[in-house]
Automatic annotation (TrEMBL):
The keyword Ribosomal protein does not apply. Belongs to the cytidine and deoxycytidylate deaminase family. ADAT3 subfamily. GO terms for biological process: tRNA wobble adenosine to inosine editing. This is CMP/dCMP-type deaminase domain-containing protein. Keywords: tRNA processing. One of its GO terms (cellular component) is nucleus. GO terms for molecular function: metal ion binding; tRNA-specific adenosine-34 deaminase activity.
Amino acid sequence: MVSNAKRLCQRSLLNDISKWKAILDDDLYQIPTLISMLCCQIIDSKQTSLILKQVNEYFNWQKYKHVKRIYCTTDEQNQQQKIEILLCRSIDTLDKIYPQEFLSKYFHMNNVTTVQIPEKQPLLKWQYEECRKNYWPNLSYRENKYLEQEYSNKKNEINSKEEAIIDMLKQLQTNHAVQSQHCAVVTNSEHEILVATIDYRHEHPLQHCTMIAIDLIAQMSNGGCYHNRKNFLYEFLLSSTVEKPTTNHLCNSYFIYLTHEPCMMCAMALLHSRIAKVYYLETVDYGALGTKYKLHCLKKTNHRFQVYKLQIENEQEQ
């Protein structure tokens, strides 16, 4: 489907643009939180199945299902197989969890060690490899191809429809954004443009371009409150019609393109309007979707959405 807006220039504004960079949860850029566990060597490897069954009765392992309790290795001195097992957290006392007879019968109690394991399952392969290499070798891992792709920043190239949208933002800044350079464009999932607007915070402190854009979408369904604000899309149209929203939630499945990272107020408005994706060209010191906060990554919100920032070729990775 072809964008309903005219192309305004031939990549002249995009010469240095590389791709969109996903703004991801900080958890993806660091090792998962580690906890200490007590580890002990089993005396008789033939009893491993029986021991594991009893150990699971004494210390529930459901919370750490991503970690396999048993690790089999070879003793470097006598070249014999040895089996190690995780018994409990280091903050616990073995004697209070396991009967003394059980411990002395099945384990080398003179060689209890402390090891660290990830408290939660690693989300990315690099986290998994680091945890296996430096902490506990026997972990479960299931690749999340979407997260791996977003983390590696692959397949986030800017397409021709997005070039037209970026051009429109630049034209809005040049032609209309006199007081503030903040502008917004809302599209559906096919990149059909629905709304193009500018910032009015110089007239009212709450009328940021994001708030105006959401309100203009609401007006298409006979809602909204900023009826004196203009949808500048009509200046760029090849046709005279604009698709009207058909969803119960305002911006469900829609994308918004912004010249600047939204503030906390606008980010919350985007969350409540059920936006699907947010793209912005520039960061701001008070930004709530990457710079100062990452609102879209909060675990307990009732809606999650994706956020992308324009990545410049010569811009160093942070």
